[in-house]
Amino acid sequence: MEKLLQVEKLETEFTKDKQKIKILHGVTFSIKKGEVLGLVGESGSGKSITSLSIMKLFKGTSGEISAGKIQFRDQELTTKSESDMRKIRGKQIAMIFQEPMTSLNPVMKIGEQLMEPIRLHLGLTDKQARQHAISILKKVGIPRADEILHEFPHQLSGGMRQRIMIAMAISCNPQLLIADEPTTALDVTIQAQILDLIKKLQKTEDMSVLLITHDLGVVAEMCDRVVVMYAGRVVEEADVFELFESPKHPYTKGLINSVPKLGQQKDRLDSIKGNVPDPSNLPKGCKFAPRCIEALPICFQEEPAEIIFENGRSCSCWLYEQERGGIHV
After folding, report:
1. What percentage of the chain exceeds 70 in pLDDT?
2. Is residue 327 pLDDT above 50, yes or no?
3. Regarding beta strands 93-96 and 176-180, do their DSSP bridges make them parallel or antiparallel, or are they unpaired?
4. In 177-190, which positions are buried (b, 16+ CB within 10 angstroms) versus exposed (e)?
5. 3-state class of 221 per DSSP?
6. Alpha-carbon distance 181 to 27, whole Å?
7. Residues 6+ apart with CB under 8 A from 289
8. CB neighbours (10 Å) of residue 1?
9. What CA–CA distance (Å, rounded) separates 64 from 51?
10. Coil, helix or strand for 58?
11. Cα–Cα–Cα angle for 209, 31, 94, nearest 5°?
12. Directed axis angle between helix 158-170 and helix 188-204, to 10°?
């Protein structure tokens, strides 16, 4: 299957108090055409920074890509100017942002916000853009679409606003849709509707989707492959079925074990002790070692290399070097 996006050894850093703090450390993954790739990990793992790096959305911040490549089809995005990226954003790569309540401009009507990218990228007249906007709103399941165009965001519910955000994202038929925690702050029923909608649109529009989430239930339902991130690094990558059947990295095991299971009789849910480390004060060796119940002495001294297994899945963990006879403890 053709690769649509290839992220290779990506490093992104921010400047704070005149010091550069690296957030992403050699992040590598790819997305195939028509595939849904899940990017998972706790808050602070670097998931959202990865998506912002792909879109080069650092305006107003000190963020910058310091190394690596982002290949989108035949284009290298890391060398693109801001004006070139504006032509790509919304048309070829679109994004559903994390918070629908604040992502829409509160003083602009829905129609103005929805029609702006349509006019810009598709070159339609106001009348044509309005008709296109109405058809997109209907596609995402919004009733009385022609009336909604004249309303302000505060007049709509959270679920409706999220549908508007999805409508804006797919309005110019992008090849890649980045959905960053698309169901945050929505109730469970609306969450299910939004996920069903994204799944349906992905199939009907033949889009690739990068789904960023910390919810493994969503991953199991939506994704074809999964990339697990921790402290700005990819620690495991696998087919979604393999990941849930036989997780390899201790961090992945901890995430899966922390999900409540139907019929499970436990007073307390399992959890991973500790927190994701501060990017400005990372521990030596494997960054997960201080929280890992399977840690070896070497884990606290040296960072593990990525190991590629026969079926193409990968994992960065000293446990598998030990199994192969690469280290002795």
Report:
1. 95
2. no
3. parallel
4. bbbbbbbbebeeeb
5. helix
6. 19
7. 283, 295, 299, 300
8. 8
9. 13
10. coil
11. 40
12. 10
Q: Report the distance separating Cα 318 and Cα 288, nearest Å.
A: 11
> Residue 240 to residues 216, 281, 313: CA-CA distances in angstroms?
10, 32, 10
Angle at CA 316, nearest 5°, toward 184 and 58? 45
According to the model, what pLDDT value does residue 263 have? 66
Local structure of residue 319 (DSSP, 8 states): H
Tokens (6 digits) for 248: 């390899």
Beta-carbon neighbour count of residue 4 at 10 Å?
22
Secondary structure (DSSP) of 275-305: -PPPTTSPPSSSTTGGG-TT--GGGGTSPPP
Q: Which two tokens stand for residue 9?
A: 């050894």
β-pairing, 3-16 vs 64-72, is antiparallel
Question: Phi/psi of residue 299, each to 5°?
Answer: -60, -30
Query: Regarding beta strands 3-16 and 314-316, do their DSSP bridges make them parallel or antiparallel, or are they unpaired?
Result: unpaired
pLDDT digits (tens, 9 = 90+) for 162-185: 889 888 988 998 999 999 988 776
3-class SS of residue 137: helix
Q: How far apart are CA 172 and CA 3, in angstroms?
A: 21
Judge contact between 26 and 50, C-beta under 8 A.
no
End-to-end CA distance of the chain: 41
Q: Residue 247 burial (CB < 10 Å; 0-12/13-18/19+)?
A: buried
Judge contact between 171 and 136, C-beta under 8 A. Answer: yes
Highest mean pLDDT: which of 23-37, 173-187, 213-227? 23-37
What is the reported pLDDT for 257? 87
- Look up the pTM and report it: 0.90
CB 42 within 8 A of CB 63: no
